[in-house]
Automatic annotation (TrEMBL):
This is Methionine--tRNA ligase. Belongs to the class-I aminoacyl-tRNA synthetase family. Keywords: Aminoacyl-tRNA synthetase, ATP-binding, Ligase, Nucleotide-binding, Protein biosynthesis. Residues 5-140, 150-358 form the Methionyl/Leucyl tRNA synthetase domain. One of its GO terms (biological process) is methionyl-tRNA aminoacylation. InterPro entries: Met-tRNA_synth, Met-tRNA_synth_2, Methionyl/Leucyl_tRNA_Synth, MetRS_core, Rossmann-like_a/b/a_fold, tRNAsynth_Ia_anticodon-bd. Is required not only for elongation of protein synthesis but also for the initiation of all mRNA translation through initiator tRNA(fMet) aminoacylation. GO terms for molecular function: ATP binding; methionine-tRNA ligase activity. The keyword Ligase applies.
Length: 507
């Protein structure tokens, strides 16, 4: 049975402008949504911004804005990021919304009443950039945070969340359930995090920008604690997707630097709230510049052009294709040269060139017709049709199991095979009225439409219209149209437009 899907991206920390790393995560989420829709599974995407904390207060002061003006400005930038990428989140959460602040205080009070929160003092080291505390033991082994930022000594009274009580529950929760992908992060939990886990400080003192406790206004909720609640603080989202009675499948997409928060603290909070826990936690690698994570606070990242400049200079297809072609499990370097190489190799030289060559072959006929028998005679073509039909039977399962890169790998194979057969069968040497000539044309036309359909989630509406017009496709990217490929299609006469190159090569 197909379940509706909720896909969440992190609530991006809005201390600066969106960069290519934010776009990477958001594009992954959107592509997963669109591939679910391609196989007729209803999917929703949740995105948003995390707007509290000392770092944001400091940044606002540096640029001469009130903190309210600062977060309003940056929230708009992250909303505009979605629009610029032609992504439409179904839900966009801001942690400065009143309903979120009230919900966060309510959860704190409930956990306090359950005896899962206690007051004590904390001493250790803090990374202002990451809004993360580190123990004295950690500092004795490393004097910088996990991302290489400086740590400063801190000591304060605080409220602690008794996360150490949940280690056994967490081990059982993750046992044999394939929740975490890639699975190697489960090993990190057992060997790295669980043995050294300490109760989590979930308040800060002497902090003016955040959610203050009603009964103890000298305490402000720790930005990470309340940001995690952003996924469930909207009543309609919580009631539709997160109740245990809901059939929604929940997929959370995160970068590996925030794995600890989402794999340990968040499911523990959900269990206390008697809400569903995510069915899948997809942990993607980093985009690297000079072998370091691209981030707002890393001076090396300045070498990467601003995101808006990248999008203006390169079309969205090139950016989305690059991200879709990556193995999401691993870290990957990012550069303009790599972006151009990937786009030129596949979308320009393979797909675009195949469309142009195919149309060049039949341009004198002005149309393609398929007065062929009920099945192909050419054994190579028959084999390719069988392989592509077999792949289509697996498409829904690949999507459900979030194996989107595998779909792209297969689309690349289809492209290579179609180009190979075109070169091998040499239809330009065949009589125009021969059965072999007609078979090749029908096969190529079918494969071009199939490949375009499989890649359609990366295409903007404008690009999809160009492809449709070029190939005279008269239907939309809808799941029922997958049935088109399951049988030999006896085309009516199809007029092909002599449009210009759909994909322009980058120098």
């Amino acid at each position: 049975m197909k379940k509706d899907v909720l896909i969440t991206t992190p609530l991006f920390y809005s201390s600066g402008d969106p960069h290519i790393g934010h776009a990477y995560t958001l594009i992954i989420g959107d592509l997963i949504k669109k591939y679910h829709e391609l196989v007729n599974i209803k999917a929703n995407l949740l995105a948003g911004v995390d707007e509290h904390g000392e770092k944001i207060l400091t940044k606002a002061t540096e640029v001469g804005l009130t903190v309210e003006e600062f977060v309003e400005k940056n929230s708009s930038k992250f909303k505009n990021l979605s629009s610029t990428l032609e992504i439409s989140p179904d839900y966009f959460v801001r942690t400065t919304n009143d309903f979120h602040k009230e919900y966060a205080k309510k959860v704190f009070k409930e956990l306090l009443e359950l005896g899962k929160i206690y007051k004590s003092s904390w001493s250790g080291y803090k990374c202002i950039n990451c809004e993360t505390n580190y123990s004295n033991k950690y500092y004795s082994q490393k004097n910088k945070c996990e991302l290489g930022h400086e740590l400063i000594k801190k000591e304060e009274d605080t409220y602690f969340f008794k996360i150490t009580e949940f280690v056994s529950w967490l081990k059982e929760h993750y046992a044999n359930k394939n929740i975490i992908f890639p699975a190697r992060y489960l090993k990190d939990l057992h060997e790295g995090f669980f043995p050294s886990l300490e109760d989590l400080s979930i308040t800060r003192s002497k902090l003016d920008w955040g959610i203050k406790l009603d009964d103890s206004p000298e305490f402000t909720l720790y930005v990470w604690f309340e940001a995690l609640l952003g996924y469930i603080s909207t009543d309609s989202v919580r009631e539709k997707h997160w109740l245990t009675s809901s059939d929604t499948k929940i997929i959370q997409i995160i970068g590996k630097e925030i794995f600890r928060f989402h794999s340990i603290y968040y499911p523990a909070i959900l269990s206390l709230k008697k809400l569903k826990t995510p069915d899948k936690l997809l942990v993607h690698g980093w985009l690297l510049n000079d072998n370091r994570k691209i981030s707002k606070s890393d001076p090396n990242s300045k070498a990467i052009p601003p995101l808006n400049s990248l999008i203006e200079q390169y079309n969205l297809e090139s950016i989305k294709w690059y991200f879709l072609s990556l193995n999401w499990e691993e870290d990957h370097p990012f550069s303009e040269d790599l972006l151009k190489q990937s786009y030129n190799k596949y979308l320009v030289n393979l797909l675009g060139n195949l469309i142009n060559r195919f149309k060049g072959i039949i341009s004198k006929q002005e149309y393609i017709t398929s007065s062929i028998n009920s099945e192909f005679k050419n054994e190579q073509i028959k084999k390719e049709i069988e392989l592509s039909n077999e792949f289509l039977t697996k498409l829904t399962d690949l999507v459900i199991n979030i194996k989107i890169p595998e779909i792209i790998s297969r689309a690349k194979q289809l492209l290579n095979s179609a180009n190979f057969l075109l070169n091998h069968l040499e239809p330009w040497k065949l009589p125009k009225d021969s059965q072999d000539y007609k078979e090749i044309n029908v096969f190529l036309y079918r494969q071009l439409i199939l490949i375009s359909f499989l890649l359609s989630p990366i295409f903007t509406e404008k690009k999809w219209e160009e492809i449709k017009n070029s190939l005279s496709i008269n239907w939309e990217r809808k799941p029922e149209n997958l049935n088109f490929f399951s049988e030999i299609k006896n085309f009516e006469s199809v007029n092909l437009n002599n449009s210009t190159n759909i994909f322009q090569k980058y120098n």
